[in-house]
């Protein structure tokens, strides 16, 4: 867990912050509290929190002085100021001194969560700490929910035995699309934030009924809203999705669009409702800005036939075995069946959807889209050109072939080799005070998400945990073997600050490095 200290002179506000968020659900824990800056320094020495949330105006020692002392002595701590409007200028000055962020009261809990997750790559640490069994359960449930949006016949006995049950006959479906190739934020970062946004949505949505959130095969966030009664369904406005659009743009730096279906009166209609959201989202391919696209208001014309789950399943299976010829054959057969060329705008949506399946697969495999297709790759522009459907189909086929060729060329980089190479890199460079997971990822030419996953599967610990473990063990050996000052030892194992090194050493071993020296 990532540890947080709350500092505020008002007990009511400390309690409010403590209970404001389900901290554990996001990988955080409140490890201690303090009523002023002076007490906060004492609590910090005892608990060594990773993040300090502090008010500015407090007795004895205010938030600015506290931040200055903490940041001066502890390079790895993060400080976020929680401030009132009247203290806004003080907050601006604090940021110049090294405070990571400030939040102005009143604020939404999602705004605070995003600020916390943006610090020191906390989002990656949170995802690393996720329980593996919970991940397996989540993926199994997502597979069950996908049956509703891709399967033609929900009465199939095998499906009936495994599908999720809904209590009420009133539904809306929403799809949140995060563009993996038009946003300025790297696709790997978007994938990580998508998991956080899914959790946020689950907590933000308040309806008279229940909701299920999962990912489709294109990497979109799909929500099935199940209302207790017709009136609740018809009165639903979707304000939570407006908040998600605004938050991602303002606080994270990428844009999303949201498609909302027509009213749905049976779980057997959920597949059609899902494709209504995709159809509504087809407008976002051309407009390139985040907005809510409601199918009920955006009356779509033309053919609504979409490709089947069988094609998606075939594509994913062929990608795994790197069989391009079968992918092209299956796509041609299915596209000829649905006749996408009869409606050019609808055809663009289908082509982009097929590309999204490919891009989602590549990111899961740890590949960088730019490495395969080059910088400045803009499929939207190409697929919206005035050219024949055959040329556009060929463009899709070329993308799949380029991706598979790249995978074939690099398939000797097995997961175990990647983990072992990362371990070797850490052991060679542990003394670098700037060593980061980003450095390892660039050295091995894999993205950070994939690297973290492979390392944890191989060594049953996160990369950050192994870096700390190796540094501490090497430090202990150096202290026993060499008659050197602690400042020299700490620098040799990657710490600029001797005081901070001693705290980390005690946290890891349970005793100070000076205890070893005294025993000798």
From TrEMBL:
Identify the species of origin.
Anaeromicropila populeti
Coiled coil residues, start to end = 119-146
The role this protein plays is:
May play the central regulatory role in sporulation. It may be an element of the effector pathway responsible for the activation of sporulation genes in response to nutritional stress. Spo0A may act in concert with spo0H (a sigma factor) to control the expression of some genes that are critical to the sporulation process.
In terms of superkingdom, the source organism counts as Bacteria
Location(s), subcellular: Cytoplasm
Q: Which GO terms describe its biological process?
A: phosphorelay signal transduction system
Q: Which residues carry this modification: 4-aspartylphosphate?
A: 55
Question: Which keywords describe this protein according to UniProt?
Answer: Coiled coil, Cytoplasm, DNA-binding, Phosphoprotein, Transcription, Transcription regulation, Two-component regulatory system
Q: Where is the Response regulatory domain?
A: 3-120
User: Where does the record place the HTH araC/xylS-type domain?
Assistant: 420-519
One MF term in the entry's GO annotations: DNA-binding transcription factor activity
Q: One GO term of the cellular component aspect?
A: cytoplasm
Against CDD domains, the record matches this protein to: REC_YesN-like
Query: What's the name of the protein?
Result: Stage 0 sporulation protein A homolog
The record, for Pfam families, names:
HTH_18, Response_reg
């Amino acid at each position: 867990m990532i540890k947080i200290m709350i500092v505020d002179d008002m007990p009511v506000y400390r309690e409010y912050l403590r209970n404001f968020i389900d901290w554990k659900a996001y990988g955080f824990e409140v490890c201690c509290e303090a009523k002023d800056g002076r007490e906060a320094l004492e609590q910090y020495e005892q608990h060594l929190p990773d993040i300090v949330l502090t008010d500015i105006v407090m007795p004895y020692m205010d938030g600015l002085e506290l931040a200055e002392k903490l940041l001066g002595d502890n390079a790895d701590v993060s400080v976020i100021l929680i401030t009132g409007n009247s203290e806004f200028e003080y907050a601006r000055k604090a940021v110049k001194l090294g405070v990571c962020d400030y939040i102005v009261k009143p604020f939404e809990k999602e705004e605070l969560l995003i600020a916390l997750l943006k610090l020191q790559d906390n989002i990656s640490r949170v995802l690393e700490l996720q329980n593996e069994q919970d991940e397996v359960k989540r993926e199994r449930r997502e597979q069950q929910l996908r049956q509703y949006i891709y399967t033609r016949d929900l009465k199939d006995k095998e499906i009936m035995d495994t599908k999720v049950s809904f209590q009420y006959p009133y539904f809306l479906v929403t799809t949140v699309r995060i563009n993996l190739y038009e946003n300025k934020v790297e696709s790997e970062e978007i994938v990580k934030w998508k998991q956080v946004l899914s959790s946020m949505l689950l907590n933000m949505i308040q309806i008279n009924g229940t909701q299920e959130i999962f990912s489709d095969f294109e990497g979109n966030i799909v929500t099935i809203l199940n209302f207790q009664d017709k009136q609740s369904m018809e009165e639903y406005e979707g304000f939570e999705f407006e908040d998600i659009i605004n938050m991602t743009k303002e606080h994270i730096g990428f844009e999303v669009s949201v498609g909302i279906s027509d009213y749905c009166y049976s779980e057997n209609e959920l597949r059609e409702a899902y494709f209504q959201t995709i159809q509504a989202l087809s407008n976002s391919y051309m407009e390139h800005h985040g907005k809510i696209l409601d199918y009920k208001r955006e009356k779509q014309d033309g053919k609504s036939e979409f490709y089947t789950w069988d094609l998606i399943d075939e594509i994913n299976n062929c990608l795994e075995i790197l069989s391009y010829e079968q992918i092209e054959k299956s796509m041609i057969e299915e596209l000829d069946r649905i006749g996408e060329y009869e409606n050019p705008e609808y055809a663009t949506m289908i082509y982009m959807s097929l590309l999204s399946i490919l891009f989602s697969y590549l990111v899961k495999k740890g590949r960088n889209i730019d490495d395969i297709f080059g910088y400045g790759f803009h499929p939207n522009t190409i697929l919206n050109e005035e050219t024949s459907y055959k040329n556009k189909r060929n463009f899709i086929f070329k993308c799949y072939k380029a991706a598979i060729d790249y995978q074939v060329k690099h398939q000797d980089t097995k997961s175990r080799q990647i983990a072992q190479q990362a371990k070797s890199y850490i052991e060679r460079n542990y003394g670098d005070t700037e060593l980061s997971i980003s450095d390892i990822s660039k050295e091995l030419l894999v993205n950070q998400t994939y690297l973290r996953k492979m390392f944890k599967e191989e060594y049953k610990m996160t990369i950050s945990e192994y870096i700390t473990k190796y540094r501490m063990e090497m430090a202990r050996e150096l202290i026993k073997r060499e008659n050197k000052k602690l400042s020299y030892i700490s620098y040799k194992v990657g710490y600029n600050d001797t005081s901070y090194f001693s705290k980390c050493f005690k946290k890891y071993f349970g005793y100070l490095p000076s205890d070893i020296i005294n025993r000798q």
